[in-house]
Amino acid sequence: MHATREELDKKAIDILNQYEGVKLTAKMRADIPVQEMPAQDPMVRITNMEEVNTGYTESQVKVEAMRCLQCKNKPCIQGCPVGIDIPAFIAKAAEGDFAGANAVIKESSLLPSICGRVCPQESQCQLTCTVGKMQKDVNKAVSIGRIERYVADYSRENNCDVTPELAKSTSKKVAIVGTGPSSVSAAADLRKAGHAVVMFEALHKAGGVLVYGIPEFRLPKKLVQHEIDNLKKMGVEINLNYLVGKTRTIETLMIKDGFDAVFVGSGAGLPKFMNISGENLIGVFSANEFLTRSNLMKAYNQNKSETPLWKSERVAIFGGGNVAMDAARTAKRLGAKDVTVIYRRTEVELPARKEEVGHAKEEGINFLMLNQPHDIIGNDKGHVTGVKVITCELGEPDASGRRRPVEIEGTEQVLDFDTVVVSIGNSSNPLIKQTTPGIDTNKRGNFIVNEDTLETSVPGVFAGGDIVLGAATVILAMGQGRQAAKAINEYLATK
Question: What is the number of domains present in the chain?
Fold first, then answer.
């Protein structure tokens, strides 16, 4: 049973009173308990699309900030792909200067309210936190992401968000393909440098994977819109319903439209399937389509949305990443009575964040581990009726370093389902490759770039995020956006 927000706030106030006026040693700071994130009750939240985590209280964020040791070597910064000065913003949060804390973050990141919610801090900045190492448990590191979320929300809600200063105009013009995390990061840095920046988005709403891929209950779309609006305030132009490769090619943008450089941050939006029988049956969806219908098209709101929604009773989710958790938890909220995640390894190997797995379990999602889908079964009307699975055991490690699942002969069984959501990853859309002469890609369709500059094989064309990395995290994509922007600045200075 989760403690209520009021109970957690009272505990935090007691800690603040206990340590008022006390000069804290490193051990005393490390011994302060991690502040639990207030959240909606599981049985309530599966009936709505509102945010699950409701955010720290002011007292909680001050207590959590007190836990930071302000290390001289600042290992947390080394773990941050965009190089945020983490100790500096946490120090301001501990003093109650939340707007100042947000301003520190905004020097390096335009998306603190988003990263504070969806980034895997436990495998990045918090992984290197000295407090976690002292406690020999990464889960006891300073909750950097939760503090980041609070100060960003505070600044937005109190109208003290910072619009970055812009350098004098360079008269250079940069095209940005896509409006996801890497593109937003690149656009912000390039605009700050004084270049004219124009973004091109294929969909009718800006934000990329942040709006079509991540559910409302994890990332409210008003937060994404706020950050897009901030870009517009900086003078960035955003064109919607504009499919680069179709509406206009990259070559045309550069030769006819006069763009001096192009950054491609178009993501990885082409769903992968397992190539098993039955994938064309009615009731089989890619996670990409399933989530886009709900997140972007608002199919969950049947009173206001005209987007058709497949009515499901028993849903199978193939895969074990964060997208699989999003799909499973969305299916539950859309009315499915039974949702099962089918994964071929054990829970130890699940790539999804522990918090997302924990939330899914609280919400009644079932997990069928060490099972591999073999076929999707249908009836004479072409509708899904079940999934044939085979039991696996773990063998020797494969190229990923995880133990390879080995199928056990004779263990096949058919389980009843009326819906299947395939969530085994995405690859890059081939459209830009097909319409851009001379651009090199690898066998997976990802752009091949210079590791230092992220420039592609076409001079003046740079790329970052999932189009280069494959499906990666928001913050890694942002890191590549910043890296590419720096290289573009240098490229334009010599052009």
Answer: 3
Instruction: Answer whether 427's CB lies under 8 Å from 445's CB.
Output: yes
Q: Are 29 and 67 in contact (CB under 8 A)?
A: yes
| DSSP three-state, residue 319 | coil
CB-based contacts of 309, cutoff 8 Å, min separation 6? 293, 299, 300, 302, 334
Summary count for the chain: helices (H), strands (E): 20, 16
CA distances from 16 to 30, 38, 59 (A): 15, 18, 8
For 16, counting Cβ atoms within 10 Å of its Cβ (0-12 exposed, 13-18 middle, 19+ buried), the class is middle
Q: Domain of 104?
A: 5-157
- Tell me, yes or no, whether 447 and 328 share the same domain: no
Report the sign of the C-alpha dihedral through residues 426, 431, 434, 439, in that order.
Answer: negative
Residue 73 inside a domain? The answer is yes
Q: What CA–CA distance (Å, rounded) separates 98 from 160?
A: 10
Q: Which helix (DSSP H) or strand (DSSP E) does residue 471 occupy? A: none
Q: Are residues 218 and 354 in the same domain?
A: no
Q: What is the residue-level pLDDT of the chain in tens, covering all 495 positions?
A: 679 999 999 999 999 999 999 999 999 999 999 999 999 999 999 999 999 999 999 999 999 999 999 999 999 999 999 999 999 999 999 999 999 999 999 999 989 999 999 999 999 999 999 999 999 999 999 999 999 999 999 999 999 988 889 999 999 999 999 999 999 999 999 999 999 999 999 999 999 999 999 999 999 999 999 999 999 999 999 999 999 999 999 999 999 999 999 999 999 889 999 999 999 999 999 999 999 999 998 888 878 878 888 899 999 999 999 999 999 999 999 999 999 999 999 999 999 999 999 999 999 999 999 999 999 999 999 999 999 999 999 999 988 788 999 999 999 999 999 999 999 999 888 899 999 999 999 988 899 999 999 999 999 999 999 999 987 889 999 999 999 999 999 999 997
The answer to whether residue 171 sits within a structural domain is no
Q: Which two tokens stand for residue 202?
A: 């294929």
CA 427 to chain centre: 16
Model's pTM, two decimal places? 0.95
DSSP for 381-436 reads: TSBEEEEEEEEEEEEEE-TTSSEEEEE-TT--EEEE-SEEEE-S-EE--THHHHHS
| Among candidate residues 100, 122, 157, the one where a domain is terminated | 157
115: tokens are 């990263």
